[in-house]
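Obj.: predict assembly geometry.
Materials: sequence records (below).
Method: joint structure prediction, all chains together.
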Amino acid sequence: MMMFTKPHPAQTIRSSDAVFEVKDLGVAYGRDAASVQVVNDVSLSVGRGEALGVVGESGCGKSQTMLAALGLLPRGGRITSGQVLLEGRNLVDLSPREMRAVRGSGIALISQDALTSLNPAMTIGTQMAEPMIHYGGMSRSAARTRCIELLDLVGIPGAATRLASYPHELSGGMRQRALIAMAISANPKVLIADEPTTALDVTTQSQILRLIDSLRKELGMALILITHDLGVVAGVADRVAVLYAGRVVETAETETLFASPRHPYTKALLDTISQLEDEVSERLNPIPGLPPDPRNPVQGCPFNPRCDYVRDVCRAELPALADSVEGGRHPVRCHVDPFVGLSLTMASGGAR
Amino acid sequence: MISFILNRALQIIPVIIGVTLATFLLAQIIPGDPADVLLGSMASEEARQQLRLSLGLNEPIYVQYAIYLKNLLHGDLGQSFTFAQPVTQVIVERLFNTSLLAIAAIILASVAGVAAGTWAALKPGSLRDQGLSVVVLFFNSMPSFWLGLVLILTFGLHLRLLPVGGMQGATGSSGIGSMVAHMVLPTITLAAWSLAVIARMTRSAILDVINSDYIRTARSRGVGEARIVLRHALPNAMPSVITVIGMQMGFLLSGAVLTETVFSWPGIGLAMFQAISTRDIPLIQGGILVLAVAFVLINFAVDILYAYFNPKVKLA
Amino acid sequence: MSAPAIQLKDVSVRFPIRKGILRRVAGEVHAVDSVSFDIAEGETVGLVGESGSGKSTTGRALIGLAPLAGGTVECFGRDLRALRQAHGALPRMSQIVFQDPYASLNPRMTIGETLKEVLEVHELAKGHDADQRVGRLLDDVGLRRDLAERYPHALSGGQRQRVAIARALAIEPKFIVLDEVVSALDVSIQGQIVNLLQDLQQDRGLTYLFITHDLSIVRHVSHSIVVMYGGQIMEKGPRKSIFSAPLHPYTSALLSAVPVPNPRIERMRPRIDVRSEPPDPSAPLPGCRFQKSCLFATEICRTSRPQLRSMTGRDPDHLAACHHMQEPHVREALSRAAQGAVS
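Observations (raw structure tokens):
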């Protein structure tokens, strides 16, 4: 069994300690009147060896934030404001050539679906070795040795023979492992894992998650774990940021967030999950209404149409992400802040 | 892979049988008595009966087909009266010339087409991309005989840079330079249409795959844009490009008839043109048969190439 | 107790593998192998397993979408095969809803047209009458009536899944197979769909087979659980008993793999691991299907196939197919893992 130690208590991470930071990032698609803002004022930071969970539902902007950070926004997308800092260096200003050099060795990405994320026309070995040979200056044989080493590291049995396999010849779990091996091949400082387990079976999910977590500790990488599943971050993340409608609505240390969530959205998500474990006859109390649509932004707080604690001010003004209660350690974007000061037990027996 | 190739090879057999049946029936449904055609309307009834007997035209149709097949297996396609030679000989002599032209054209069309399409796909929406669309539209909307004539007028008669027609063998007095010079204009003429189609297909196929997750993976590992397009996008776009190239090869064979006529290129196309104008039915039959079989074999080759570029097909 | 609504007895489904030039049958995929379970009327059975476990094929076989290689399926007391022979097609008592409603809705038809088509094909309603029924169906699944004018792409994932449910309800079935119906949806929307399904079940006495790999949802909706692995049933029984004290190592592994939304528990709990890839369904090994992945496998697991049986002193309806489930060291490991998962 693994030991879970926390290398950095969250509150000690000041921005100078952060290896990777996103500051006031905005991302939009289209121009002028047709422009759709999908990410707004998002600020995140993660320290060396730390794991940050970024949680939100589809369309909340979590993946767009990370693609923007990697300079990989699809056509039509652009950064409208803010900075992306890797060890203090602003990536937004870099030329395409400089940015290319950052990818892989500075920031690496593991995406959701390993089948579509691996080139179907190339063997695993060829695609793994490509950046090593052509950008890392390795010889073919050195790259081969390194690939075998990496496949061993991620737990693929018979690594040497697997190099000649095509992606479709591997099982889902093996493909995801190969994708992870590729992501860590250039010793990145930051590893972004975008829903790395969503497409997998439950038993494989838990193995892949533990693999990513142990690699993070072994290699001292900062990990950003993007997911819609709060259960996934519970086991891995040191801190969690909850995104809703393109904005951070709450960040806290993982244990604090699960024990005493402050934003009504976070609270409702947690309730939904825990209710699922209840008796068969009991009705769930799901979050009503539809997920936010970035094409039709809501006036005021974006969660107000679905919120149980809504007041007039919520419909008029967007709340700031702030925390005066806990000295900035647990900022929340809510006018009402309904659970503040309540213990968990009181909160769960409260208004809902 | 071996079993895949064998499998496809077996599928060819019924197609070839169908082709022989079609060419055989072609002669049957063409109006007029072959004996009339061969001997002219002034021939005596006796001579015509003689010929009918010797050609087996009085036999039942299935017997005629059997005879046709038997002759075919012996390489006997009948006698061409236009050339006063066996059809087989006429075709064999010209097959090389046509192949030379067609292969040169398909190589030009594929290489230039894929290159142009890839070049445009590197920067979609840019000036060069829009320029390519215009060129594609121009080539696609222009009949090949007209392009041939324009080229002859410009480069042959006006600029006097290149010969306007005929063909020169590499072994001839003026050597390989002259052969190439004679090939330039007909090759361009024949390739133009296909080049445009292949360029357009390559561009759209690359743009289809460039948004794939695995392209994003490669980019996220620091692979440069040129490698992305050439090593990742292009191979995955190739199956659809190859399909189009295969279809173009069939088209080139029929395009050769016109091009060879315009440039007096001594190939099967020119011979077919002459055969059609003189109703030389055995030669028409033989020409169609050879072109059809060539078409089938090209498709076979395309299938194998397709499988080579798409590892998953081999398993199917 | 009355006879169960749905009864599977030794159901097997096999698919041929074709190979070579002549496409001759070179082998068979044993997708489902001697599966038996019942679903009581008005109740839900949760069918759990990973990809390749045969859970979806079982669901399809139940409504006649996959051919039976052996065994019988009885729907409300009538044999599926006999029904098929008598009617040529299956009567309108069972329906299926799939994971991805986007793929199963025609993008060129409005929601109203899609629903109306079902009513007209089955000659349930026509013209104005059908329009009325479409409106009521949309009411039933909690969608606004004006959505009938929309196309599938204009709807959210949750709305599309509601449409798929409405389409299944259109022919007024008594039994619905729900194949991963909430897996692709956001957590907040999953809850809404689960509520809808449970309301419909209560109002109409519907019987469900709920197929999923997601154990937390299956736990909430099911009355009893069937766990499949490699085409066979590993364990089945009442929900409570399965979740609180699983008998089979595979069930236990599944439970301990589900992340618990509580950081302290999630980081400390013991786990039972699955050690290898799922078995190859075209070359089934003798003995237990789970042998290669099992922490407790011994010689007997490689030679003899364990039968489903109950455990002494436990609920007699709770069955598992494991040679070692009675042994103390297995029980102890499993119960430790289960405690972590429950709290």
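Conclusions so far: DSSP finds 13 helices and two strands in chain B.
To do: check interface contacts against the pulldown list.
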